[in-house]
Amino acid sequence: MKKYIGKRLLQLIPIILGITLLSFTLMQTAAGDAVDALYDNASGAVSEQIKAEKRAELGLDQPFVIQYTTWLGGMITGDMGVSYISNKPVFETYISKLPATIALTLTSILLTVLVAIPFGILSAVRQNRFTDYLIRFFSFIGNSLPGFFVSLLLIYFLALRLKLFPVMGSGGGWKSIVLPTLTLAIAMASKYTRQVRTTVLEELNKDYVLGARARGIKEPVVLYASVLKASMLTIVTLLALSIGSLLGGTAIVESIFMWDGVGKLAVDSIMMRDYPMIQAYVIWMALIYVIVNLITDILYHYLDPRIRLEQEV
Amino acid sequence: MESTIINSITVRVHRKKKDCTMMKFYVFLILVILLLLVAAFAPQIVPYDPCAQDLMNALQPPSAEHPFGTDRYGRDMLSRVVMGAQTTIYAALLLVGIITVFGTLVGIFCGYKGGKIDSLIMRISDVFLAFPGMVFAIAVAGVLGGGINNAVVALACISWPKFARLARGQALSVKTMPYIAAAKLSGSGPLKIVFKHILPNITGPILVTATLDIGTMMMELAGLSFLGLGAMPPIAEWGSMMSDGRSMLQTAPWVILAPGCAIFITVMLFNLLGDTVRDVLDPKTKRSGNWRKK
What we know:
The complex is a heterodimer.
Chain A lengths: L1 H9 L1 H18 L4 H8 L6 H11 L5 H13 L13 H36 L4 H15 L2 H15 L16 H27 L2 H8 L4 H29 L3 H6 L5 H10 L3 H29 L10
Helix pairs in contact in A: 2-14, 6-7, 6-9, 6-11, 7-9, 8-9, 9-11, 11-14, 13-14
Chain B lengths: L1 H39 L1 H4 L31 H37 L1 H16 L2 H12 L3 H28 L2 H8 L4 H37 L11 H8 L8 H28 L13
Helix pairs in contact in B: 1-3, 1-10, 3-4, 3-6, 3-8, 3-10, 4-6, 5-6, 6-8, 7-8, 8-9, 8-10, 9-10
């Protein structure tokens, strides 16, 4: 097992190398750089000479290969550089934004699970009846609403009209997390309700359920002890993937609600061409990707020991 | 005697269910075709020029003259929403088309060939899968200049691996079938095997995934435009129209509602079509059939 995890974590190296090289190359091709972004936003025209001096200071006048190797050398020794815009260390800034994103991830996943699992089971048990149609109707609607539309609707009705929650910002205590959580949970809960329903239905159609019923085992026992346990495999995997994408920061939702997490940081850095910060974001995405995949594989193995881990690599 | 009756009943019930699925399929297909027609002939059917500014009539609430109201430059929202349909639907279909074809070809190649080249391409696909679309979009914008095509290219770059993996898995399982061995024995070349024997047998799941992906991709594209990384003004696109109306949410909510509802209805229609396509093509995952009566 340890060997397997080690082997999988080794995969991180080529992925991180590939992904950072890719983003460095892409940033070279993007129009404008951090210096332009920095001075063009400031009032008044700045002479090309000042810009050139700033570029030299940041090393932006160096050839591409040198820029990349300098950055890579720094990263290996644990120095991720300094933000071009705020002049603060990248690593510390990035870490300081993580708690907000993690908090949002936890609340929205929790709400999703609390909604999706009971409603999904209910929908499956009451298949093709009114409850089922109602649940499916709502989950279908939730599935087709883009996040930015949901968040604007929530802001309009709950924050502007009813004044129940603050419009934006992460400083307003527990109330400020409600709207972003709802936005994220509506989409995810819709998706998972459908998923739970399908999985539970599939499981209910299996022969062992018929056998259990024939032996007179009570319906709740069949449902919770056997069916739900067997259905968890699919659901847990999907949840792990969702947690991964949430930890990557939900750029749109975080920017709309001015939630001070990594998603908003990423959008801001991209707009300002803050290369070192973008690199940190890209590395974080790669880390999440590899680790989430590893965790789902291990969960698979744990929940269904027939699945062998070693063959996967 | 009794069993024949039961058989005929089940056949009839089955047929009825199938008819129902097919009918649903045709209904949604016709609706989607209507939507596509609206999008295709948008310039001809809009009541006003979608880019014509009329500052005297800025931010008018919905009225008989402007059913969806006007935005802050006095542009007619109805015309902009209809024109936006063209931009958004065209971009989403283009995107799904590109990633389906490219991903499937790469996937079949990897699955069929196997070995080192397969694992190399799969590692590369890892890099793309883990890569944030926003970073791609801004870079593509630098090369190609702004516009919705950037967002298409950017999302295509990070979305093709999904189809490559699907096609690869399918190709791997089809490859071991006896008829492939038979085709090889009878002297078929690899190209013929791939295109004549493997591809037709894996189109079902790929087509289903592609149809279901149209709605998702539409939302992603609109999301990039919303962040200002996709369609550029003054082109009408639903995501950027909503981003434009954000600051006027309190005073002029119709500027958000019109494109928001448009995107919601369109995505829902494509999702409904995708669901029925799955039911038609893939009876295994059909969600009908009552387990209680089984």
